[in-house]
Amino acid sequence: MSTRSATTSTSSSVGHAPEPAGAPGRWGSLGPVGLVLAGGVSVQFGGALAVTLMPRAGALGVVTLRLLAAAVVLLLICRPRLRGHSRADWGTVVVFGLTMAAMNGLFYQAVDRIPLGPAVTLEVLGPLALSVLASRRALNLVWAGLALAGVFLLGGGGFSDLDPIGVGFALGAGAMWASYIVFSARTGRRFPQADGLALAMAVAAVAFLPLGIAESGTKLLDPTTIALGSAVAVLSSVLPYTLELLALRRLPASTFAIMMSLEPALAATAGFLILDQTLTTIESAAIALVIVASMGAVRTQVGRRGKARLPQA
């Protein structure tokens, strides 16, 4: 199956998927839009905290701590069943886990070289590209174009002054983010509640562990580093991934991807509050553009909701 057909199929099936009976009521009451927004706020503040941790443990060390702590928490909470799953189920979980490992590793390599705001701005191009590929309505292309304009405006119209290696890592993280959206939706359909996420996080942690040990070694055993890494895991992995997985069960991948254009705005806010990074007038205008684009995408989805529930031929 081609990339285009895979993402299109995901968007369609997620859009028509019924609400799973096992979804936690306290999260489901927020609605899919609220779930995405809550996850976005959590992950960006977790990312800002991770930047302050990098001098202690290194970029790969931070990712290792984040994935390990998140895996432990999710496995203890979810206690997923290991039996009764098909080979296709396990294949989906493994690919989802490797995608998360690659996405996290590439992104933290990027923010180790370029500021948080531009890194997230470049990374969000992946979900925006997915929204264009997965969309079946011309109006969604308009929202994607508006969000893309805001993303480039937030980047100052270009990224020539940034470390090219950091830019490359950020773009690679964006490609993995688009893949994450696809495989998160597939995992959510194959496993109850967040069981698939817990298993995938364990796969990601095991896959990344050798890289973290190679870079950071015994630094990973420092109690303060472990505590800060665990906080990053909760903010950047446990909460957002769980909320997004639940949201993708009721929200088309194309609409979800456009809403991800809010991430640069959230990152800029986190950078201002935690890293003392200020916003210019142009950056504020860019934030307004991506917010308008995301609101438009949500309104389009609300208009489709009634049609989506009609029986399909």
On the 0 to 100 scale, the average pLDDT is: 76
Which residue ranges are poorly predicted, with pLDDT under 50 across at least 5 consecutive positions? 1-29, 305-313
Biggest sheet architecture: none
Number of E-state strands: 0
- The number of distinct helices, counting runs of at least 4 residues, comes to 14
Structural shape: globular
In N-to-C order, the SSE pattern is HHHHHHHHHHHHHH
How much of the residues is beta strand, in percent?
A: under 5%
Quickly give the structural class.
mainly alpha
Gyration radius (Cα, Å) is 18 Å
First-residue to last-residue Cα separation: 23 Å
Range of helix content = over 70%
List the helices and strands and how they pair.
Blueprint: H1 3-16, H2 25-28, H3 31-57, H4 59-78, H5 87-111, H6 116-123, H7 125-134, H8 138-154, H9 164-190, H10 195-216, H11 223-248, H12 253-259, H13 263-275, H14 281-308
